[in-house]
Amino acid sequence: MTQNRLPSANLALVAIGGNLPSLAGPPEATIRAAVEQIIQLPGVVLSSLSRFWKTPAFPAGSGPDYVNAALSLQTVNSPDELLSALHRIEHDLGRVREGARWQARGIDLDLIAYGDLVLPDLATHDAWRGLPPERQAETAPETLILPHARMQDRGFVLVPLAEVAPGWRHPRLGRSVAEMLAALPADARADIRALTT
């Protein structure tokens, strides 16, 4: 499929990660399997795939190191349609969504941004983005929040994302991915390293 077939496509940014085996195998194999399924989705064209990055588990001590990557897509699917498709791929790879937030998992596909769309509305997005860290671990939104409310704080998202969409600008913060990455504290990027696989 080529971009010529998607004349009214929107940019979608997706973060991928995992730190446990899935039905497809170890994390690197799982990410490859997920990417293969994503690029076969109707109405989706892959623009760019980052390298794979090894990152410490978040929060610290919650499991083995993760393998993370990021995708830039063109899609005619709505954000909800794309997110539902990503959740189906997670399910196909063996993920069961239950239990505590931020736990070890075989695959995690996060819709990080969809063009410059802010969902569900400006006030709700700002409230979730400003949620204190201790509340983040125990509270999950009941609706899709875009851009992802924590993206600007997470090296494991921004490092791979900077390879596929460095110039994408956060519609509420006014900063590009490259600028958000540069603004991260050194310790948020210290142990992130590219894999050669």
From TrEMBL:
<dbReference type="GO" id="GO:0003848">
    <property type="term" value="F:2-amino-4-hydroxy-6-hydroxymethyldihydropteridine diphosphokinase activity"/>
</dbReference>
<keyword id="KW-0808">Transferase</keyword>
<feature type="domain" description="7,8-dihydro-6-hydroxymethylpterin-pyrophosphokinase">
    <location>
        <begin position="14"/>
        <end position="166"/>
    </location>
</feature>
<keyword id="KW-0289">Folate biosynthesis</keyword>
<dbReference type="InterPro" id="IPR000550">
    <property type="entry name" value="Hppk"/>
</dbReference>
<comment type="function">
    <text>Catalyzes the transfer of pyrophosphate from adenosine triphosphate (ATP) to 6-hydroxymethyl-7,8-dihydropterin, an enzymatic step in folate biosynthesis pathway.</text>
</comment>
<comment type="pathway">
    <text>Cofactor biosynthesis; tetrahydrofolate biosynthesis; 2-amino-4-hydroxy-6-hydroxymethyl-7,8-dihydropteridine diphosphate from 7,8-dihydroneopterin triphosphate: step 4/4.</text>
</comment>
<protein>
    <recommendedName>
        <fullName>2-amino-4-hydroxy-6-hydroxymethyldihydropteridine pyrophosphokinase</fullName>
        <ecNumber>2.7.6.3</ecNumber>
    </recommendedName>
</protein>
<keyword id="KW-0418">Kinase</keyword>
<comment type="similarity">
    <text>Belongs to the HPPK family.</text>
</comment>
<dbReference type="Pfam" id="PF01288">
    <property type="entry name" value="HPPK"/>
</dbReference>
<keyword id="KW-0547">Nucleotide-binding</keyword>
<keyword id="KW-0067">ATP-binding</keyword>
<dbReference type="InterPro" id="IPR035907">
    <property type="entry name" value="Hppk_sf"/>
</dbReference>
